[in-house]
Structure prediction request, 389 residues.
Amino acid sequence: MAQLAAQIQSQDEEFRRRLGRLLRSGPIPTSVVDEIREGAPADLVIIDIRFEVSSAMANIERLRATSPNVGIFAIAAVADPDLILQSMRAGANEFFTWPPADETFHGAVRRLTARRETTQGAKPTSTTFVFFGAKGGAGTTTVAVNCGVEVARLTKRSTVILDLKPGLGEVGLFLGVRPRYTIVDALDNLHRLDREFLRELVTKHKSGLEILAGSDNFDRPGAADSGVIEELFRLVSKQYDYMLIDAGSQINSCAVAALYSADRIFLIANPDVPSVRNAQRLLERIRELGASGDRVRLLLNRAVEPLPVPRKQIENALGHPVHHMFPSDYKTVSNALNSGVPLTMAGNSDMAAQFDHFTRQLIDPSFTAAPAEPAKKGLLGFEKIASLW
Ligand SMILES: Nc1ncnc2c1ncn2[C@@H]1O[C@H](COP(=O)(O)OP(=O)(O)O)[C@@H](O)[C@H]1O
Ligand SMILES: [Mg+2]
Prediction:
């Protein structure tokens, strides 16, 4: 999940924009919150002390008195020794001059996170995996759902999957469950979204995976929800060890919020030209957004050797290694889909073996057992098409 919730206090639009970007591009997934909700205080408050020094100092003091554990970063116009001393005495943890250098700032965020982790009573943070498709039909929901089932089954830890798709989400369908409530009910009741209420909203699958289903409303979640969806991710992830998000294949405001909240972003592509070209654009966009590129893992779905576009060519075009390849097996995948039984619970297919291996590696990066090789099928000979992008 977003490990930190940060608030930026400044009247200056450029300051808020730049700091927001700096926070998003750092190594620690951070959500930027506009206002602090009761019961969900910010972990980090960044205060602009360039103009109204005395009121800014009073603000820091007040904040420190009410929230002893919050990280406070002060940003001044100049590195004046008196001002540094004054801000530290008021309770700031870090002092920067405007504009802060990226590396120095990220270092301070890292220190803050490390301090929070060792602080007594600091809750272990949950892990968020976001699944994003290079194009519709690439297999995003298939991968997200089967991975969710495996995470719940293998870890026996609390695991939830959120379906962002507006208008008849498919995660519930893939798992053969009939959800009574959807993500829209959660969005409309954020103020009372505690463990008890959330338990009412989710549907439980027999693997242990809990589902916050996609809505049947074609406009939601949509642009109007973009202000609160990040808060939803934060509140839900507080209640689970693992949160997975099926973010679809459109870069819209809700998908962007999911990307910001991710510890790992899985970009699902097929080894064909349209998919690779879209993946290229999406990776550029993800980098532009400042959602740190090193959180992205590229997955190739429906990968039958020899690939229509060779793996090396895909990796060169995208500037990203292929993290995992899932074979193509329409019969097994569609049987699973139509019966609502996930692949790994439906028998010993090659697909099931791939999901098992992929998920074991996900939850324990030191896991290295050799994966089952994706099945080798017919040669399609599309290599020359790769020159099109
Ligand atoms: N590895 C695969 N082999 C064969 N068919 C697949 C595979 N992955 C997905 N499919 C099929 O492709 C279609 C689209 O999958 P889906 O997961 O809904 O894609 P998305 O969520 O990206 O739109 C479904 O009919 C699904 O059964
Ligand atoms: Mg889908």
